[in-house]
Design goal:
Helices cover about 25% and strands about 15% of the residues. It has about 400 residues and is α/β, with parallel strands linked by helices. The strands form six sheets. The protein has a five-stranded parallel sheet, with helices on one face. The longest helix has 21 residues. The radius of gyration is 21 Å and the shape is globular. The N terminus is likely disordered.
Length: about 400
């Protein structure tokens, strides 16, 4: 069975992203393992060109620039006649306060709404982002040319944005936790799109005090994969790109839901474990995490689905073995490219049935020149592709012609 095609006009938008917690690089070109890989297009949204690692997106027709949130819980946005109000509720886990931003058009009088709010005139012309996860959003919205600074520019892998770095249009401003404030001040950005795990970042505060507003992209705190994607609507508001953001989100949402429909009537749910050992800790996705949502939507029986945690559980090897030794499938075992490499790291992995049966899958199909995985960069804004891969792994009989985009079966 093929994924259902969406018959609409293709709108090419290239992008690439990177997970904050493990900055990695990717290739600018795919070295495909199967020369026929480009012929497998389960839906137009996953069309793969031979000269790019980024699938094209067919945009659905939607002219409305109003903003309605359907999945994101970490922010709210309200459009008024003369201004837009944004409240970021979840900039990081367990945040104790919200951040309010009042956006109004350049050349208009600043409204008097909230003394504690940060007032920003739009559209933004010059800005800085601090995470490669933001790069694809910028390219989707067509505003990458306005990016003037980025920490550790070597991490940018998008061909389009890397060209801007080589041309000197995007300056290296240091590292994520050690941004060079002097360079930032010289660049004079109108906005910094930041990232924080706890809110403790003196650099951001110093730049804020100097008159450069900072917003925090907390998309990674969302429980639902589509909630993470929906943060594109928040960022779009600063650039008057609401219409484009709506179109992109709706297209990805439709493709995600179409994938869910494939397994809607499936009763068989294979048992699954996830994660791997890092030093002495096995990081297991909590039952309320977006990873658990993926597995639920792919009709898998995730062994920690009942756990109420949104983030990761920190377990010992013995705890995971006790619960997951008999699991049928092992998904996302890290960046290992083979079972032998896994054993070299820890020979106890062979105690798991999934390992013995060679039913271990890692997101290593698209690898960059420095070993970076495209999965960690692209996945947060393309959950539709991840879900399709998982369905192929868990219920291959339902999608026999589908070729995985991220995940590889290890041997």
């Amino acid at each position: 069975m093929k994924f259902k095609h969406i018959s609409i006009k293709l709108f090419f938008l290239c992008f690439i992203l990177l997970v904050i917690s493990c900055k990695q690089e990717i290739k600018h070109e795919i070295k495909q393992e199967n020369k026929n890989e480009t012929n497998h297009t389960p839906t137009p949204i996953q069309e793969i060109k031979a000269d790019t690692i980024i699938p094209t997106i067919p945009i659905i027709n939607q002219s409305n620039d109003s903003i309605v949130l359907t999945h994101a819980k970490g922010f709210t946005i309200e459009k008024h006649d003369t201004y837009t109000q944004i409240d970021i509720i979840s900039p990081w886990p367990n945040a104790q306060k919200k951040f309010t931003y009042i956006l109004h058009p350049k050349g208009t009088q600043q409204p008097s709404i909230d003394q504690q709010a940060i007032y920003i005139t739009t559209p933004i012309d010059r800005y800085i982002v601090t995470s490669t996860t933001d790069i694809p959003i910028l390219e989707y919205l067509g505003i990458e040319n306005n990016l003037v600074g980025f920490p550790h520019t070597d991490y940018i892998s998008s061909e389009k944005t890397r060209a801007l770095v080589k041309q000197g249009n995007i300056k290296n401003i240091g590292k994520e936790q050690d941004i060079n404030t002097e360079i930032v001040l010289e660049l004079a950005p109108e906005l910094i799109i930041g990232f924080s795990t706890s809110g403790e970042n003196r650099t951001y505060q110093a730049l804020q005090n100097s008159g450069i507003p900072t917003i925090f992209n907390g998309s990674w705190t969302e429980e639902h994969p589509l909630g993470r994607v929906e943060w594109i609507k928040l960022l779009a508001a600063f650039f008057n790109k609401e219409k484009e953001a709506n179109q992109i989100f709706e297209t990805i949402k439709q493709d995600y839901n179409a994938a869910k429909d494939i397994v809607a009537n499936t009763t068989e749910q294979p048992t699954v474990i996830s994660g791997n050992l890092f030093k002495d800790v096995w990081y297991v996705p909590g039952g309320k995490s977006y990873i658990a949502t993926f597995l639920k939507d792919a009709k898998a029986s995730y062994l920690w689905a009942d756990n109420p945690k949104k983030g990761s559980l920190t377990l010992s090897f013995e705890e995971v073995l006790d619960k997951g030794q008999k699991a049928q499938i092992w998904i996302d075992s890290g960046s290992y490219k083979s079972l032998d490499l896994m054993l070299k790291h820890n020979d106890r992995y062979e105690l798991f049935d999934a390992f013995k049966n060679k039913s271990v899958y890692s997101p290593v199909l698209k690898i960059g020149p420095s070993g970076g995985l495209l999965y960690y960069e692209l996945g947060s804004i393309r959950p539709d592709l991840i879900l399709k891969d998982l369905i192929k792994i868990i219920h291959p009989e339902l999608v026999p012609e589908y070729q995985p985009y991220f995940f590889k079966k290890l041997d």
